[in-house]
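Structure, all two chains, one model.
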Amino acid sequence: MSLAASLPMLVVDGVDERGLADAARTSPDAFAVLYRQYVARVHAFAYRRSGSREVAEEVTSATFERAWRAMPAFQWRGGGFKAWLFAIAARELAGWYRRNARGNGVRGQRALRLLHPGDVVHDDEGVDSEDDMALLRDALSTLPERYQEAISLRHLAGLDADEAAAAMGCTKAVLAVTLHRATKALRRAIESRRTAS
Amino acid sequence: MRTTELRELLGELEDSATPEPSALFVAKLEADLRTMDQAAEAEARPQRAPRRRRARLLVAAGPVAAMTAAAAAAAVTLLPSDPHPRQVTTADPGVTVPAPPRAFNETPTSVPTATTVAAPPWLPPAAAPPQPLTTATTAAPRAVVPAPASGPSEQSTPTKVPFHEPVTTTVPPETTTTTTAAPQTLSLNCHGAMVNGSPTVSCAWTQSTSPSFAWYRLYREAQGSNRVLLFSSDARTTTSTADTTAQAGTTYSYVIEATDAAGNVVGKSTPVIVSCC
């Protein structure tokens, strides 16, 4: 068989991610490739959810450490490695908010921004937008963890419906219902905070 | 607050700018992960070692016990048929055996006395002074038999070592060494060419014949960058692939490795340098 004939089926997008994930169950080198591929995306996800570079780094570290420990038991399912990894990240974020509930309020996040001004990436809308984002994050952290995971995976991690459902271990229909309820709960939480302030 | 407003807010958050993780953080985390891997390997190692030692001890104890019994039997056959009064001691401590048999009508003493005779010629001479009976330990396999209670009924069977009699001895120093087979040499050929207008490096290698084969892994390394796993396959008959991510004008080094299920390299090629394309 000529080499050219074997080209299309063996390499997809440069790297066969399924083969890579299977190899990563026993090979640190293969896991290192996946790590380099996803570390920026997990970090961005954690940063969007927390608004803090420190928290993003802490959650990213915990996510990959947990993933590496769980890697021998990894099985390729719908959504693949990406959904599996972001599910770990979403749980780590929810766990972080549970452990640090006191500092997650709008005032706490303002204080965090004052302490670490370099952490904030400013956009054109300035402080109002930052407060809105802080309010949204604060309200999100008060929801049940499953609601937090559904909203985070679907809206902040950039997973499509199939991947988010696979990450949460449910069907798309169940995910849709969960998202509907989570959005409703989030809206109420934001309104109550706006009223209180 | 309307649902659409909330969705806009979520969309705004999703589209918001995020900082890249610092290179230092990325490198440190990768180093931490590798340390975790090494620590896990180090933790796993001591759990296996005691099993190997125990296994070796059991294997070694078989012949030693057999030699001990044989030496004891041979030593006792050298005893005079007429028992010497009480004890005979030679310069060479030799083999300690039970007291000689007494005549049937002789009154047994309450405390049996041990008799020491010369060691059989096939045993090496003793280098150490006589050891107490209960702590007899020698480097060479020398027979040690505890003195049983004497009596007329034991006259015909003083040479037998009880089946479950514990034998205290020192296992000879381990001489076995674990040798690992060198990885099989695989032949790798890579050629760069433009396929449908894009630079492509096609690689083919010889099939691994290692019985423990589990994976092929093709690695690529460019000058000044890290080695990247490019392709992996668990099919032994898959012996070619193509790198469609190669950049024109770049020189790469390719290596194919065959590994077992535990990730140990069982076959490897020499690096092949390809200038693309």
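Confidence is low (pLDDT under 50) at residues 88-99, 102-169, 174-178 of chain B.
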